[in-house]
Specification:
6-stranded mixed sheet, 19% strand, 6 strands, Nucleotidyltransferase, domain 5, globular, alpha/beta, 9 helices
Length: 243
């Protein structure tokens, strides 16, 4: 029987990883790995998200998505209609982010600088993923997970994109892809990618989605007020901005 690790990891991104057409208002790609201890995830995190959904929607089928909340789009249109309810809703989300136990690694790729520096630039997603995998693997060793399988859950984007991402992930995990001067032995802590549709409604993916854009904005505009980042700042164990 496989010896599974004590942790589960959820990955989410903000921005696109294309280098052909770069949005001047958001010229970065960010990837975040949110790491949860499984017992805490099952007993604290999932129930807190479910309770919030029952409170504001009457059911737990709603999916918390940062973009829809920010734009107050359905099913969050009620946030536009009732300022008091909006404040209460945001306060409850912030309380979850403050209270529940997790930590995160984030890589932000400045696509303009990356494209300018390298004649044949790597895919920003691949670079960000390697950075996050390095930090994750090193920490799993420290936490006594050597030789134990850890699953990393990505949100499914489509068959071909998922296939390419899985191939790159497995190359890194098998030590067949090294980038930069640092060499990490990923075989110490086996990593397995899973691609899960958004409709699975997993709290881990929703928490990851809620912090991915604020982390990217922190890298782009470090002096701009960023309450969402401030709330989780002590949970961000590494924020890599490249190049």
């Amino acid at each position: 029987m496989t010896d599974f690790s004590d942790y589960i990891v959820f990955a989410d991104e903000s921005g696109d990883h294309g280098l052909v057409s770069i949005d001047p208002q958001f010229p970065v790609f960010s990837l975040v790995f949110c790491v949860f201890e499984k017992t805490a995830y099952a007993l604290e995190i999932e129930p807190r998200f479910r309770q919030l959904k029952f409170k504001y929607f009457g059911h737990d089928a709603a999916i918390l998505h940062e973009r829809e909340i920010r734009k107050q789009a359905p099913p969050f249109a009620f946030l536009r209609q009732d300022p008091v309810l909006r404040e209460a809703f945001m306060a409850d989300i912030n309380a979850i982010m403050t209270d529940v136990p997790f930590h995160a690694y984030c890589a932000v790729i400045d696509k303009v600088k990356h494209k300018a520096r390298y004649a044949d630039p790597w895919n920003p997603y691949e670079i960000a993923m390697q950075f996050c995998m390095e930090k994750l693997s090193n920490r799993l060793v420290v936490d006594g997970q050597r030789g134990r399988l850890t699953h990393v859950l990505f949100e499914a984007r489509g068959r071909e994109e998922d296939r390419q991402l899985e191939l790159e992930f497995r190359r890194v995990a098998a030590n067949n892809r090294q980038w930069g001067w640092r060499s990490v032995d990923f075989t110490r802590t086996p990593l397995e990618p899973l691609f899960i549709p958004k409709s699975a409604n997993l709290a881990g993916h929703q928490l990851s989605d809620l912090i991915a854009r604020p982390l990217a904005l922190r890298a782009i505009r470090p002096d701009q007020p960023n309450r969402a980042f401030d709330i989780v700042a002590n949970r961000i164990w590494n924020l890599k901005v490249f190049p």
